[in-house]
Amino acid sequence: MLLSHMCLRLLWLVFVKPGLYH
């Protein structure tokens, strides 16, 4: 479902991106 994909994308933005740039 699209909503679950949006949740995964939000989690990626919050956790993965700061981890990459830290």
TrEMBL record:
<protein>
    <submittedName>
        <fullName>Uncharacterized protein</fullName>
    </submittedName>
</protein>
